[in-house]
Amino acid sequence: MPEALLEVKDLQGWYGESHVLHGMSFTVPAGEVVTLLGRNGAGKTTTMRAVMGVLGKRKGSVKYEGIETVGLPSNVIAKHGIAYCPEERGIFSSLSVRENLELPPIVKPGGMSLDEIYQLFPRLKERANNQGTKLSGGEQQMLAIARILRTGAKLLLLDEPTEGLAPVIVQHIGEIIRTVKKRGFTVLLVEQNFHFASTVADRHYVVEHGKVIDTFLNDDVKANLAKLESYLGV
Question: Reduced to 3 DSSP states, what percent helix, strand and coil does the chain have, rounded to the nearest 5?
């Protein structure tokens, strides 16, 4: 396996008194797109939140570039180079597209410039002065991804980026993920649609009941299709 950018080991997580993560362990190699696959409620989003440090309580180990981040606040974790794009997108409706793009702080050098982002997302350039409320669902998702590309983060956490989007927009999101990978970003992707995931990812971890129960390289997906479908209830 290539050098790890993120190493998660025996990660436990809670929402209040509810124990959700039961020993998540996986590795995200630098420069890869890695997916967490699983049914609703498996613990995928909770894992993202735990990695980002925005879960109420967590135990175990989350190492980023060899640095232990469990115990660090989320703003410090972000400054190490991790950015989170939540499923709900978090677009500021009262701000324009450009203002949304410029809002997140630069945490490290190496992020994409506004011009580079507009090249990757020409629709956002066309809508630069529009308010967030005027955007379609697909445009909001593009904006949510685009604004974390400015920050200089190396690891992008993308939670269900294709949820509820039209097939043509899903295809475009796939192109964007492949492009940012070519630019040296590493992506941890939460997906229920493994058919989409298989078009962008290098490896997959199957999550069930708050832990990883299986892993596949993308090249092995076809040979293990029946097993994957049984895991995911497809």
Answer: 35, 30, 35
